[in-house]
Amino acid sequence: MPDQARREENAERGTRNAELVQRARDVAGCAYAPYSHFRVGAAVKDANGVVYVGCNVESASYGLSMCAERNAIFAAVAAGGPRPFTALAVSCLDAGGGCTPCGACRQVVFEHLAADAAVYVDGVGQFTPPELLPRAFTLEAAES
Fold first, then answer.
1. How many CB atoms lie within 10 A of CB 140?
2. How many domains does the chain have?
3. What's the whole-model pTM score?
4. Domain harbouring 34, CATH code
5. How does pLDDT run across 22-68, given as a tens digit for each residue?
6. 86 backbone dihedrals φ, ψ, rounded to 5°
7. How far apart are CA 128 and CA 116, in angstroms?
């Protein structure tokens, strides 16, 4: 690919990534986080390029709280979004240096996103699902 075409493709990809991160930032403002005061938003892109968003929702019974990443992915599944999903952005409005997904979210990301999907963690960097969760649990591994 010629250098000019590569630069244009990278610029376009950067714009799309920035838009996905912005969607995550926007929805983080809707988070219900009266206990942790840690507002997180996520935006996931399905195989057709449709974006679904989610934010964290806390409960006084902490174990019943749900993270933004899982809410976004589950919304995409519930809406019939085609898998595997191609990108995910996560943003925390209240973390100075960004926040990476928790272990439960990493497992769900691993199961629903393509292995080479980009996971953008606002303020931290870009990863793939296997980079976030090496040696993830799979039923195939459990059965062997």
1. 7
2. 1
3. 0.88
4. 3.40.140.10
5. 999 999 999 999 999 999 999 999 999 999 999 999 999 999 999 99
6. -105, -15
7. 6
